[in-house]
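Problem statement: downstream parser choked on a complex file, so we are re-checking the raw output for the BV8 run. The parser issue turned out to be on our end (a line-ending mismatch), but while we're here, posting the original submission so the record is complete.
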Amino acid sequence: MSIALAAEWLARARQVTVLTGAGVSAESGIPTFRGDGGYWRKLRVEELATPAAFTRDPKLVWEWYEERRQTVAQCAPNAGHRVLAAWEKRFPFFLLATQNVDGLHQAAGSVRVAPLHGDLWTLRCTAEGTERIDRRTPLPAIPPRCPACGALERPAIVWFGEPLPKEHWEEATQAAVVCDVLLVIGTSGVVQPAASLVDIALAHHARVIEINLRETALSDVVSASLQGPAATVLPALDRLLPPDT
Ligand code: BV8
């Protein structure tokens, strides 16, 4: 599928919705989950990214998140993040729904963001549910405790078996309903319900453009599949758009 056709769809679009996954941060140096060198290649999801894992061994789960926080703290947004941040101003209606918890979209200047799976830098008190941002790496203690009540804190991240944040999920599904174009970037499309944004957009006659290094679970249903690294394909797509008036 040619990038020129995808650019034509985008140039005519007024409402654009984006769904990103770990692949959009890969070129910033952050490991993905399921690809080569991905987290789930060597670690088991059930031991780290579920409520049961945290109940069983909060220290082990926090050691994994501490390691990820230290990795992400060294990483910067890449050209793909920056194009998406610029496009927010270009289209009358724009929403970036992300499965990523690294905060790189926000660091690149994106504001219209729906973080579907939470945030690596936010800690939640397991007793009160109150949340606070703590960017210190390393954290002073693992597992961290709530400064107000002393209860264990958990990462404010959506684990497997947990519902997505209601307001962000509703915002993302609504944006998939109304959009002219849905861009699906750097996701294997295996995690639900995030991947179902593709079905919602298609059911409402949007054009769905996938950007990925390789074929995914979504490639057969999307309107266009652009194969290549997001930090290369997004700037190339951007250059094909008419000057931003
Ligand atoms: C829920 C937190 C209900 C952890 C994450 C059976 C069938 C269907 C669904 C289920 C099922 N059994 C269980 C479920 C539901 C489950 C699910 O989807 N499981 C899957 C694995 C089968 N979903 C849930 O549990 C969700 N909750 O359903 O709740 C409910 C409702 C009401 C009340 C109670 C409960 C919660 C899902 C959220 C889980 N949490 N993360 C953490 O991050 O610490 S998911 C995890 O996967 C990450 O968030 C990640 O973002 C997400 C998706 O992965 P990707 O981002 O796609 O990353 P991946 O490595 O897979 O792929 C990277 C892609 O990038 C690849 O395609 C690669 O080719 C590409 N790439 C690489 N480099 C580049 C690139 N592309 C472009 N450029 C590059 N340079």
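For whoever reads this later: Residues 21-23, 26-27, 32-35, 38, 49, 99-101, 117, 157-163, 186-188, 190-193, 211-214, 216, 229-230 surround BV8 (CB under 6 Å).
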